[in-house]
Amino acid sequence: MATATGQGDIRDRLGIEHPIVGFTPSEHVAAAISRAGGLGVLGCVRFNDAEELDATLDWLDANTDGKPYGVDVVMPMNAPTEGSAIDLSTLIPQEHRDFVDRTLEELGVPALPGGVAEGAGVLGWLHSVARAQVDVALRHRPALIANALGSPPKDVIDEAHAAGVPVAALAGRVVHAQRQVDDGVDIVVAQGHEAGGHTGEITSMVLLPEVVDAVGDRALVLGAGGIGCGRQVAAALALGASGVWMGSAWLLAEEYGKGFPGSAAMQDALLHASSSDTVRSRIYSGKPARLLRSRWSEAWAAPDAPEPLPMPLQNLLVAEAHLRISAAEDPGVIAMPAGQIIGRFDRIRPVADMMADLVEETRTAIARLAAF
Question: What does pTM read for this prediction?
Answer without folding.
Answer: 0.92
